[in-house]
Design a protein that fits this description.
The protein is of the alpha+beta class. Helices cover 40% and strands 18% of the residues. The chain has a six-stranded mixed sheet, sandwiched between helices. Strands 9-13-10-12-11 form a five-stranded mixed sheet, sandwiched between helices.
């Protein structure tokens, strides 16, 4: 599955929330109609129309390394996407952030190691306007000095927030240990404000023009949005187009990362306590194995029914444990993060014991019940326009758009229904044997232990 939002360095830019109201179901005969194709001038789009809701979700997704194309500037993609949203394309214009706010919508941004995305949830009548404003902002990618300063302040706040999030800190530390090089080795949000301050405006502008070009974009739209709204995608004037060199109409190849030959466990001092485990998993092309690991994550770590989650509650009611398989182009990652001030070691062992038991096939009836629950959870999680647009964008940029949960092809559901106990046990034995382990220790405790 795609990473949970709390691991994605997401922001909302202070945009107001809008209380969207559903419309009558009879208002749309073509509910859930899905279309996809190529945008004029380059890039791709996916549209899922649902006339029974009152809002539209518009998102742009780009393949872009979070630390820059040279890997030297962690946080660069996040800084760039934020600054563009706050910049005005021309004098007397409104910025994208202002345009979304004026229609009563909400703007969100998320940066991952290999992907960056910007999205807006707006009242349905404003969809065409925001599609044009968003595509104009990013396909021209102008960054003003004022917007750059604002983006820097936002990045500094994100650094402070990450410092007190065991889940996000452990997530980044696990990826750094697991991958020797490539975007996944670097955190989407850097560890220090000083790292943000080393990034200059001209570097950010150069990155934005390369990463946010039309040909590198996937536009996803969901909710009460007319499929023909893609006709509102910004196009340069004939004179401007002839005066400039044509942008690349092709999308960048996925930015894969190289796993270490012998990744090592690690410990780090921090503001909060926790632990984590991670394993290299299959590529997105191995969809059945990917789905099996999604099933394992749901079976063990679902917030309401996961076996390990229930155990964690009994051991430490204040603990937070998150397990997920992150579907990436190549390779994917299974990771578990544990936030606990007193029981992280015990909980980590519970995770390992649970995975060891899954190396043997589950009883047929128990497996059938767990698979049905997993399918229900998946279908429940793809009901909202935001989740639909998120999934379409994530799986498209990772290289397998039809595999997106909620896609009209039902490819993901078909893979779920193909799972059997023997195959799941085989996948666990193949991929989840030897984890990388990390530990996050509060600085005060670390100092006491060193005395």
């Amino acid at each position: 599955m795609k990473p949970l939002q709390n691991a994605a360095a997401a922001i909302c830019l202070g945009i107001s929330l809008f209380a969207f109201q559903p419309v009558r179901a009879s208002a749309a005969a073509d509910v859930n109609a899905q279309q996809s194709g190529a945008l004029s001038g380059g890039g791709l789009y996916v549209v899922r129309h649902d006339g029974t809701v009152g809002n539209a979700v518009i998102e742009l997704w780009f393949r872009a390394p979070g630390a820059g194309y040279d890997g030297a500037h962690p946080g660069l993609s996040r800084l760039a996407v934020t600054a563009v949203a706050a910049s005005r394309p021309a004098a007397h214009d409104t910025s994208l952030a202002e345009a979304v706010q004026l229609v009563g919508g909400r703007l969100s941004i998320a940066a991952y190691p290999d992907i960056v995305t910007v999205g807006a949830s707006v009242p349905a009548p404003a969809a065409a306007k925001i599609v044009r404003a968003m595509t104009r902002a990013y396909f021209t990618a102008q960054i003003s000095p004022e917007a750059f300063k604002s983006a820097r302040r936002d990045a500094a706040l994100a650094v402070a927030e990450k410092h007190y999030s065991a889940d996000r800190t452990i997530h980044d530390l696990l990826f750094a240990q697991l991958f020797a090089s490539g975007p996944a080795h670097y955190p989407p949000t850097p560890d220090t404000v000083q790292a943000v301050d080393t990034i200059a405006l001209d570097q950010t502008q150069t990155f934005a023009r390369r990463a946010f070009r039309r040909g590198n974009a996937v536009l996803t739209l969901a909710g009460n949005v007319d499929p023909h709204v893609t006709g509102n995608v910004w196009q340069p004037s004939a004179s401007a187009a002839s005066a400039s060199s044509p942008p690349s109409a092709s999308m960048d190849r996925p930015f894969d990362s190289m796993p270490g030959s012998a990744p090592k466990d690690a410990s780090q001092a921090g503001a909060v306590a926790g632990a984590g485990l991670a394993w290299i998993g299959p590529a997105i092309t191995n969809a059945r194995a990917d789905t099996a690991l999604d099933f394992v994550a749901d079976y063990l770590f679902n917030a309401d029914s996961g076996l390990v989650t229930k155990t964690a509650d009994a051991i430490d009611p204040d603990a937070f444990i998150n397990g997920q398989f992150v579907t990436l182009h190549d390779p994917g990652v299974m990771l578990v993060t544990i936030s606990s001030a007193k029981s992280s070691v015990a909980l980590r062992q519970k995770v390992l014991d649970a995975l060891a038991s899954l190396q043997r096939p589950l009883d047929a009836s128990a497996f059938a019940a767990a698979r049905n629950a997993f399918e229900y959870h998946i279908l429940s999680n793809v009901q909202t326009p935001v989740n639909q647009a998120d999934n379409f964008g994530w799986y498209a940029v990772e290289g397998n758009p039809q595999y997106a949960p909620g896609d009209a092809s039902r490819t993901y559901v078909t893979n779920v229904e193909s799972l059997d106990p023997q195959f799941v046990a085989q996948v666990v034995r193949q991929y989840l044997q030897h984890p990388v382990a990390v530990e996050l220790t509060p600085a005060a405790h670390s100092q006491e232990g060193a005395q």
